[in-house]
Amino acid sequence: xxxxxxxxxxxxxxxxxxxxxxxxxxxxxxxxxxxxxxxxxxxxxxxxxxxxxxxxxxxxxxxxxxxxxxxxxxxxxxxxxxxxxxxxxxxxxxxxxxxxxxxxxxxxxxxxxxxxxxxxxxxxxxxxxxxxxxxxxxxxxxxxxxxxxxxxxxxxxxxxxxxxxxxxxxxxxxxxxxxxxxxxxxxxxxxxxxxxxxxxxxxxxxxxxxxxxxxxxxxxxxxxxxxxxxxxxxxxxxxxxxxxxxxxxxxxxxxxxxxxxxxxxxxxxxxxxxxxxxxxxxxxxxxxxxxxxxxxxxxxxxxxxxxxxxxxxxxxxxxxxxxxxxxxxxxxxxxxxxxxxxxxxxxxxxxxxxxxxxxxxxxxxxxxxxxxxxxxxxxxxxxxxxxxxxxxxxxxxxxxxxxxxxxxxxxxxxxxxxxxxxxxxxxxxxxxxxxxxxxxxxxxxxxxxxxxxxxxxxxxxxxxxx
Length: 466
What we know:
Blueprint: H1 26-59, H2 63-79, H3 81-99, H4 106-130, H5 132-140, H6 144-156, H7 160-175, H8 181-202, H9 212-236, H10 256-287, H11 289-325, H12 332-356, H13 358-363, H14 369-402, H15 405-429, H16 434-437, H17 440-458
């Protein structure tokens, strides 16, 4: 909940940088960071494998199908934006309750979140199903791509519901700092998608050859199997008495309205970030068709670099909220340093490879000499940018973890405005080379880092109740 309480003295969040928080050893806290982050990293990698698999399958079916599968994935991501907001809000609340030693109210918070997400996801699935044709025409225009996109969305829409409910389970387990459960779920998801997709897309083992409709069936099947896996684990392995799951919608300390209030800005942040990149590519498209194609390759590399940071940032949600619940806001700065160091340790070796051998990295995406030559310097800029992207993303996640989601989404708006203004001036006003347009990324990240870190350290979020 983000409603304002009577002002309290600001929390002291500026401990000595060299010293770990009281009664917490550096080794134990580092272990906690890795224990929460690594399973989330597995999830991120699993999702990437699914996307790569679908793209690879459609590339062997046809050009229209290949174009449609990417647009279909984007449509589904946009459909679940409200769900992401509620799920992330639930994760913050659960972590806070665990820090407050109020374990028995976790179950009620989870069930409220589950019911909210069920309603939102059903509405999204029905809308996608009924509006598949208009959405396809809007996204791809008339023609073969729109036809294939409509085929995909008509079936894939029903996978939104199990996908959304799985996100709720993921938020529960991450909030409980028991994210290792997600490893089994993502392995199940990935295996199901690959096997079912191969069989139905290409008509193997005597099944009909369905093309992109086979990919849609695979998506629904994979999300359903993952949801059933997490449900079975919750029923068989989770201590329902300890977490108050058997008590139903009893005392949760957090209403459904509060979850929506807390989650709304989170959903807004996801939507703004998506819109930012869409607008960025619109600006690049004004430069030239080649610049747009090269930027697509660079963005694919950036998305891969960002996977570990996303995982550690998700852990920051939980660990920051838990620390505040324990009354130890003074450990946040120290904790952020540990998380940033850990995320950097995973990410920077890949960045070093990209800086040392950019031509090898680009050749994984294309063998066209003009594309390789046009992409190299821009890839170097993006790879070096990770030095500031990593801390900026994690400090912004920390701000969300405090519960001050309004301030966090305001920073996202400032970041988006800064990046797009920089890109527009570089590309359209001064007609600079592509690498200078992409300098908008580190420039905007510096703004995010300064604003998010400064706001968290100021302690002004202590007037927000979760």
